[in-house]
Amino acid sequence: MGEEMELTHFDKNGHAIMVDVTEKADTVREATAAGKIRVSKEVYEAVEQGTVKKGDVLSVAATAGIMGAKKTSDLIPMCHILPLTNCRIWFEMKPREQEIYCFCTVKVTGKTGVEMEALTGVSTALLTIYDMCKALDKSMEIGEIYLCRKTGGKSGDIVNEK
Hints:
By secondary structure, the protein is an alpha+beta fold. Helices cover about 30% and strands about 30% of the residues.
C-alpha cells in the first residue's frame, strides 16, 4: 500500500475545521480547471452566432465565472478568503460534439492554493450558459469538471493528464 494522505479538514475527533495556514509561507500559486456543457444544435448555433435573447452568452458566462471564483469562500465552507491576483475564463467550441468547453485559471500569492476557485469559476460559467440558454433547451448537460493542473505550495506542481 502507498502512503496514506491525511484529510486536513477534520480535527482529531472528526469535526470539520478550516485548516490553519498561519505559519505557511506566501508563494505564487496557480490552478486551472476545465468542464463542459453539451447542448442542442439550436443552442450551439445561437451561442456561436450571438443570437440568444439574453445577450452575449460567453461574455456573460466569463464574467460570472470570474465572480464565482472570487466568491468561492462564500460557497465552500472551509475555503479561505483569498485575494486573487488574476482570474481568466476562456471557452473552446466543439461543433461536432455540440459542446462548449470552459477553462478557468486562477492565480494568487498566498498561503493556500486556488484549486477550489478555479473549479468554482468553471462551474459558475457553465451554469450561466445553462441559465441563459434554458429557454431553448432544458436538456443541456454539464459535466467533466476537473482540475487540470496546479502549481505552487507544499505539494508542488500537479498535472492531470485527462
